[in-house]
Design goal:
DhaK_dom (chains A, B), alpha/beta, homodimer, kinase (chains A, B), globular, six-stranded mixed beta sheet, transferase (chains A, B)
């Protein structure tokens, strides 16, 4: 165990305490619910966007609460869904009278609890719409694309939907943008080591040193291929090919690429993956016009990375380029 | 080995290739020297700031070449100094007629090669001044403070000196600012696992799982204490106390805190350290008015973190708040 933690039972609450001490001008807790964090200031006049899920993925989810991004988040325990009550508290504090979009990854617990929260919100007179992020191309075949898991691509969905909400779009319009962004993206990942849960002190799964698992989920869900670790170029080939075969953008497409580190993988290695992705996408007739490279969605100290490709058009490019600001993300 | 790399002998050059492919509008190579990278655009009218050192620390060093930051960098092999020729190339491409500040960490190889480069630059008619970053409080006692190593605090030195250069300050003035910032800061770190060199495939030092080393250097240099891993609060206490006992700011001081991850430590854990630092500094009568929390200076996949405290006055606060922009750092 190589963790700088205190009592594991207090891990999430202490992390939140640290975040709120550090960023009191930007983030506040929702009334009466310490596990619901919302953007500082009034939500009036904007569609709210509430996200959430288990802890352990910073900057996801809390890191994307801010200007031009999400308006609130419900914070679960490590790798565990937040409760419907926590989601409801984030919803009420995010509602500015124009309704609230629920935008989160396609995981069973989250789907159930956001569903319950939507019912509770309706009792409170708050309209919600739900859009699931399901960008992990290797988690299910194309004919079951709507069962795929949500991974790092959710950051690009937040960016697009958040920019739409910020400029004053209506709830159906913000939801349409989120759906469009998600339909235009695919992600593929690779894991080289497991994450270790603070409370358990043990790996979430076994992956021998020197092996890799392509398509592994951010909680250690099974991938599509396990075998000896290959070179950065070979791994990038596997990921980019899986993405592009499924996404099949038109020749000459402009795309955005997100190369995301899962936690322990150095930034240097992410640039090796970017380098190969750049070459491969050019060979396939796509042009990278926007990119994020760094740790955007992690899995505690898991070694590994993911690549996301988002096909851009004028509308999505404008939303990606819009200003955004949170303690964890600025552009 | 859990590295996404190709041929280890090409590691640094391929990383640079990826960075230049990703950010061609912001970074370019100096004429004839692929290991010297400078900010895009003309250096005319500004004091240049050239830094450099071994690779494996991204965003340090290359990540701080940009607007309001450094103007050029010489890129060594992993954990190895760049050559005087590489430094000279960065110097020539960074010289806008007002001279060049050499601002880098206090390591033997770097001191030697930047010294040689300064002589070569003089032959070329370029004036240079050198300021060494030596913020690692645990690397030598107070009476030998100028022999201390340079670690994450160099990022704050870049920020202050870079802002001074950007607004048009003279070389002696930019050097004065750098010296002042460095004199006003201390850093203390902890390592929980070693980094692994790509070429060797082996740890740079042994640190048994479950042990920690307080004061460890970013290349694995010996620290001040090795023992069983303690809680996040206990570790933060050790680091903050070492910093504050040495720095001894006036009661009521306003300070900036940088909580830096060394590579594999999750952002969640950095916020636990921030939380405790916030409590301790308040107890000691200092007020945190600025903060950076994240991975600013790493050591490949080393698990661990450092804390830096910088005492602010009006001049340094203004320089910290000035706009800055590189592919790796924006504010």
């Amino acid at each position: 165990m190589r963790k700088l933690i205190n009592d594991p039972d207090n891990f999430v609450d202490e992390v939140l305490d640290g975040i709120l001490l550090a960023h009191p001008d930007e983030l506040v807790t929702a009334p009466g619910e310490p596990r619901a964090i919302v953007r500082a200031g009034s939500p009036a006049g904007r569609v709210g966007i509430v996200t959430g899920g288990g802890s352990g993925h910073l900057p996801v989810f809390l890191g994307y609460v801010g200007i031009g991004l999400c308006s609130g988040v419900a914070v679960g325990n490590v790798f565990s869904s937040p409760s419907a009550e926590q989601i409801l508290a984030a919803t009420k504090a995010s509602d500015g009278g124009k309704g609230v979009l629920y935008l989160f990854g396609n995981y069973g617990g989250d789907v159930m609890n956001f569903g319950l929260a939507a019912d509770l919100a309706e009792f409170e007179g708050i309209s919600t719409q739900t859009v699931l992020v399901h960008d992990d191309v290797l988690s299910a075949p194309a004919e079951k694309a709507d069962t795929r898991r949500g991974v790092a691509g959710m950051v690009l969905a937040y960016k697009c939907a958040g920019a739409a909400a910020e400029r004053g779009d209506s709830l159906p319009e913000v939801a349409r943008i989120a759906v469009k962004a998600i339909a235009s993206m695919r992600t593929a990942g690779v894991g080289l080591s497991p994450a270790i849960l603070p409370a358990a002190g043990k790996p979430t799964f076994e992956l021998p040193d020197g092996d890799m698992e392509i398509g592994i989920g951010i909680h250690g869900e099974p991938g599509s291929h396990r075998g000896p670790l290959e070179s950065a170029d070979e791994v990038a080939d596997r990921m980019v090919n899986a993405i592009m075969d499924d996404l099949a953008p038109a020749e000459g497409s402009e795309v955005m690429v997100l190369v995301n580190g899962l936690g322990a993988t150095p930034l240097e290695e992410l640039y090796l993956l970017y380098r190969r992705a750049h070459q491969l996408l050019a060979e396939r007739g796509s042009r990278i016009v926007r990119k994020y490279i760094g740790e955007y969605a992690t899995s505690l100290e898991m070694a590994g990375a993911s690549i996301t490709v988002l096909v851009l058009d004028r509308e999505l490019t404008e939303l990606i380029d819009a200003p955004a600001s949170s303690p964890f993300f600025r552009q």
